Structures are given as C-alpha cells and as structure tokens.
C-alpha cells in the first residue's frame, strides 16, 4: 500500500492467510509471498519507475542546459519544477512502495518511516500547488496579457511559494505515521510496518483525510477550473470577434481579434490542460476509494485489485508528464535528440567534415542532428585551415632568405 495517505493499516491482512496463536499474536510468512499478483505488482512498479526516471531526467537535462535557460519561458520553469517533483516521487514514493512489496514489511526503520512519508506528501502537494500556479499563469497570459509582462519573476515567486506550502502542510505526517510491531514471522522474528496510528479516535482520521483531500484535490481543481473556464471564454470571444475596419491597429497582446492570441500560447495552453487533466484523472480514483473506506469505518469491503489499481494509476501520473512535455514542446524534442545522439555525431565528425566541403554530399549525409553536425564541421574546418596556414608559413616564409640569395646570384650572373 502507498504509505503517504492515512489509509487502512490492515491491508496486508486481507491477502495473506494468517494464524492466530493463543496470545493473539499474528504470524506472517517469512518475507513476501511471491504469487502471480505480487509479481505483476512488482513488474508494473518497475516499468513505471523506469519510465518516470528516464523521461524526467531527460526533461531536467534539456531544460537545465545553458542555452535553454537563457531563453526559457514561464511554462518551462514550471515544467522543470514538475519534473523535479516527479523524480522525487520516483526516488521516494515508488522506491519505498517497491521495497514494501518485495520484503512484505517495512524495513527502513522508525526514522525513515516519518521522513519518507513526510517527503511523499511534500512531493504530492508541491505538484498540486505548482499545477495550480501554472493555471493561474496561463489565466494571466491569456485573459490579462498586459499584466503579465514580468512573468518570469512572478513564475519563480509562485513556484517558491508552492514549495514552501508543500513543506508546511506535510508536517502533520511526521506525527501521524509511526513504525509499529505487526506480529511475528514464522521464524519468530518481529515484523514491522509504517502505519498511521497517530490518532486517538476514528473521527480524527476522517477529519485529517478530508483536509488532505481538500487541499490536494478539491481546492486545486476548483481554482484550475475557474482559470481555464475564463481562458476558454476569452478564446471563444477572440475567435468570434473580427476587426471592424481593415485599418484598425490590432496589438498582438490584446484580445481584439482572433489573431491577438499567438499560436504558441494556444499550444502551451493545450500542454497545461493535458498535464492537469492527467493529474486529476490519475489521482481522483485513489481519493475516492480511500474516502469510502475511511468514512464507512472500513465496513465497505473494496476488492484488493481496485485498491492496487487506484494506487498504480496515481503513480502512473509521474510517468505520463514527460510524454506531454515532449509532444507539445519542440525544443524538448530537439534537446533530447542532441543529448541522445551527441556521441554518434562526435564520432562521425571526420566524415561530416569531409562532406561539408561538398554541398551535394552534405545534403545527403546521414546525421541525427543537423545543428550539432554543422557546429562540428565548422570547428574541424577552422582547425584544418589553421594547420594549413601554419604549414604555409613554415614552408614559404621560413625559406625566404635562401630564395632571396638565389635571386641575387642569378641577377648578378645575368649582368655579367
């Protein structure tokens, strides 16, 4: 089970056949029971972790490069922080979940039980707050473009505020989750779990989970919906209106006509909508399932496959975001090509430099990145030209005195 939300602490009991000793001690198998269900779960987590790690590492590398930082837009700043958050989800949430599934118990200790669960909520809350900030930024850029002239500064402030809020609202997790002894194994070893037992009554669990659902899902969804409904209304108004006179001056940053909103903004708007829709779709089933269980005092029995499916779908969100980034952002795709094929282009520099001298051959050269190949060709050509000049100076200028003497002797003999 995903530990960062105060769900049922007895999920494992529903899947294992347990034996109760006379002293009510629960006996668990030694280690995890590797059945088909567990293997599918581990394989699925491994695939999601790999996709999340590779995709978000590429996004961070591309957007962190110097030339992309110099011309980075506000949306790229948000995307970079979302990618960092997704990497944290992969390294903290997914890793701890995978360890729990593999070992069948909590093996990281009491301190990590509090710190890891705290970090899990930080990453989740930061993603939610950054997405809300991104929606507000798009609202300002489309609906109030004249007020968004200092967007980069404001974007960084919004992101900084989002991270501070995430670290703040996650503090209760430190006091709620503790490491507890949960029975013994068949060999007599004490078994531990990281569980949410920082409550003295069931109503406290309900209140806290309601608050968690409110600031993670409900409030952000309302704010995001408000922003994009206004954006949609502005786009519809801009598409219907047309200039009354041909000589009318239409500013690009105004909303006086259909041409007032650049296509780049529309594409960016589609990107943010896909990211936010993916977050809401992936995380809503998780909150619904656990709200039903908690508010029914765990009397409503939801199938274990549904619970695992909701948790897996929630983790899948971190792997989907890089796909949206690459699909809608041309610079990300170009940067990815440059990173992947950099070594290949470097090794083929000699062949490319030879083909650069012939325009017909250079057009047919099979190269993965035209930009990198051109730069390598130019460097190689400059280096070769410098070597030729140096050789010319040594050969002709260095032997200038001997040639002058020969010319002098020839001229004197001709005079005689």
From TrEMBL:
Protein known as: Gonadotropin-releasing hormone II receptor-like
Superkingdom to which the source organism belongs: Eukaryota
Pfam family, one: 7tm_1
Domain G-protein coupled receptors family 1 profile: 55-325
UniProt source species: Limulus polyphemus
Spans traversing the lipid bilayer: 38-63, 75-95, 115-136, 157-178, 208-231, 271-289
Keyword entries, A-Z: Cell membrane, G-protein coupled receptor, Membrane, Receptor, Transducer, Transmembrane, Transmembrane helix
Membrane topology summary: Multi-pass membrane protein
Protein location: Cell membrane
Record family assignment: Belongs to the G-protein coupled receptor 1 family.
């Amino acid at each position: 089970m995903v530990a960062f939300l105060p769900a049922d602490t007895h999920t494992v009991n529903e899947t294992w056949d347990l034996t109760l000793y006379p002293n009510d001690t629960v006996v668990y198998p030694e280690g995890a029971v590797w059945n088909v269900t567990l293997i599918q779960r581990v394989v699925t987590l491994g695939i999601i972790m790999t996709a999340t790690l590779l995709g978000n590492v590429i996004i961070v590398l591309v957007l962190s490069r110097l030339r992309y930082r110099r011309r980075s837009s506000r949306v790229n700043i948000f995307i970079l922080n979302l990618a960092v958050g997704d990497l944290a989800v992969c390294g903290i949430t997914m890793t701890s979940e995978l360890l729990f599934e593999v070992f069948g118990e909590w093996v990281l200790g009491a301190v990590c039980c509090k710190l890891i669960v705290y970090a899990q909520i930080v990453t989740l809350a930061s993603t939610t707050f950054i997405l809300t900030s991104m929606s507000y930024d798009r609202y300002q850029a489309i609906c109030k473009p004249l007020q968004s002239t200092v967007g980069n500064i404001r974007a960084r402030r919004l992101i900084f505020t989002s991270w501070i809020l995430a670290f703040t609202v996650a503090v209760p997790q430190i006091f709620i989750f503790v490491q507890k002894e949960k029975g013994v194994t068949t060999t007599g070893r004490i078994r531990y779990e990281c569980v949410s037992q920082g409550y003295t009554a069931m109503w406290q669990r309900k209140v806290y989970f309601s608050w968690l659902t409110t600031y993670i899902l409900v409030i952000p969804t309302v704010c995001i919906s408000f922003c994009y409904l206004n954006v949609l209304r502005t786009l519809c108004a801009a598409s219907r209106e047309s200039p009354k006179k041909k000589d009318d001056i239409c500013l690009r940053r105004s909303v006086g006509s259909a041409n007032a909103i650049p296509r780049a903004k529309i594409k960016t708007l589609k990107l943010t909508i896909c990211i936010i829709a993916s977050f809401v779709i992936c995380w809503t089933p998780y909150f619904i399932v656990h709200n039903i269980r908690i508010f029914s005092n765990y009397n409503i029995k939801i199938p274990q496959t549904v619970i695992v499916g909701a948790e897996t779908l929630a983790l899948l969100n971190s792997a989907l975001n890089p796909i949206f980034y690459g699909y809608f952002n041309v610079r990300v795709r170009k940067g990815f090509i440059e990173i992947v094929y950099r070594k290949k282009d470097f090794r083929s520099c000699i062949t490319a430099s030879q083909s650069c001298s012939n325009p017909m051959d250079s057009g047919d050269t099979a190269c993965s990145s035209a930009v990198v190949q051109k730069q390598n060709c130019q460097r190689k050509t400059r280096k070769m030209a410098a070597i030729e000049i140096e050789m010319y100076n040594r050969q002709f200028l260095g032997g200038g005195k001997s040639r002058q003497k020969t010319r002098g002797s020839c001229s004197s003999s001709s005079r005689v």
